[in-house]
């Protein structure tokens, strides 16, 4: 989530009072918020957003926050963040709510959040099969409201939980949209991203799609300083004899240091992003095994290892921010991600309009 730099953030089951959410809003550098208070110690919703997007809250309850984006303008649309009723016997309340909200406006509509239900049987793994009637009720309300599932990129199951001695995996979190909203944002993709601090994996809706990054120049990574081998590699490279003139030798030694550091980093770190991907896949397999009755201890160990890798990735984001005057010990990495992500957005082309005024994103 730190690397995504969202302009709007929806939080469900916050379990937090308004003062704590106000501090979170400030810490994450959001400008505005709308809070649905928790009941006793449970529940609670919050929508945070930046002033770069114009949002007008229309209504809210314990299960949703409904807003209009760019109200009164030609490109206005609607976003409803949802938290479905979890109790099986009360699921119909969520579907009734969606139908009521559908009748309020005719604007292009995006609905996203935790629906606490699955659409199809393959969206659950572990324990007993989901009731076909329960899934059919969800599918019917999606059809009645003219919505369609936006799919996902990344992890299929967005929630995992313990049931007895095993685990259950389900795709409870998703984004739905009307055809009118998709016509405004044809490149939209929904990404399920890593998180080991909650039983839910966050999803992020990307109207511009997911754009891959090009190769980058050599950059000294701050995380290398956490390993003693970094200094040894630089010293060994710098002491290497070179048959160059004094005017060339410094540049050649710098180049050699770059090469040796990259070789050392590949051996020592194996590419943090690659390690995270591999560890994430392994964790997913172990969670699947736990859902079939395997020991949960392996899940706990892998989550600890994942958190260590994510800390290293956080250091990489600090380096990419290029704001070296800030103290590296600053625990609020949100600033670093914001700066790096802003630079990335400025330096990319998402798509082109062809001669027929059609939006093209296919690189071929």
Automatic annotation (TrEMBL):
Gene3D superfamilies (UniProt xref): Endonuclease/exonuclease/phosphatase
Highest taxon listed in the record's lineage: Eukaryota
Organism field: Quercus rubra (Northern red oak)
InterPro entries according to UniProt: Endo/exonu/phosph_ase_sf, Endo/exonuclease/phosphatase
SUPFAM superfamilies (alphabetical): DNase I-like
MF-aspect GO terms: catalytic activity
Name listed for the protein in its UniProt record: Endonuclease/exonuclease/phosphatase domain-containing protein
Domain Endonuclease/exonuclease/phosphatase, first and last residues per copy: 2-200
């Amino acid at each position: 989530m730190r690397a995504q730099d969202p302009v709007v953030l929806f939080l469900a089951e916050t379990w937090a009072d308004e003062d704590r959410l106000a501090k979170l809003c400030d810490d994450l550098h959001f400008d505005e918020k709308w809070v649905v208070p928790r009941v006793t110690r449970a529940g609670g919703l919050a929508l945070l957003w930046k002033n770069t997007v114009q949002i007008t809250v229309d209504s809210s309850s314990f299960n949703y926050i409904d807003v209009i984006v760019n109200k009164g303008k030609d490109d206005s649309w609607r976003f409803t963040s949802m938290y479905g009723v979890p109790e099986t016997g009360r699921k119909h309340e969520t579907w009734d709510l969606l139908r009521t909200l559908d009748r309020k406006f005719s604007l292009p509509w995006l609905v996203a959040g935790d629906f606490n239900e699955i659409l199809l049987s393959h969206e659950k793994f572990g324990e007993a099969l989901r009731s076909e009637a329960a899934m059919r009720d969800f599918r019917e309300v999606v059809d009645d409201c003219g919505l369609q599932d936006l799919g996902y990129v990344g992890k299929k199951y967005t929630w995992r939980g313990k049931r007895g001695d095993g685990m259950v995996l389900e795709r409870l979190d998703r984004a739905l949209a009307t055809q009118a909203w998709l016509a405004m944002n044809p490149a939209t993709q929904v990404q399920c991203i890593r998180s080991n601090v909650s039983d839910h994996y966050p999803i992020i809706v990307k109207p511009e799609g997911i754009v891959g990054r090009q190769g980058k120049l050599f950059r000294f990574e701050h995380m290398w300083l956490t390993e003693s081998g970094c200094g040894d590699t630089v010293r060994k490279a710098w002491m290497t004899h070179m048959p160059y003139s004094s005017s060339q030798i410094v540049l050649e030694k710098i180049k050699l240091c770059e090469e040796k550091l990259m070789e050392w980093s590949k051996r020592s770190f194996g590419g943090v992003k690659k390690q995270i991907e591999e560890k994430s896949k392994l964790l997913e397999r172990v969670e699947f095994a736990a859902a079939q009755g395997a020991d949960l201890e392996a899940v706990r160990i892998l989550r600890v290892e994942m958190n260590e890798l994510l800390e290293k990735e956080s250091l990489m984001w600090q380096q990419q921010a290029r704001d070296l005057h800030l103290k590296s010990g600053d625990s609020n990495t949100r600033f670093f991600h914001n700066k790096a992500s802003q630079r990335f957005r400025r330096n990319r082309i998402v798509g082109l309009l062809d001669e027929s005024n059609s939006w093209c994103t296919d690189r071929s």
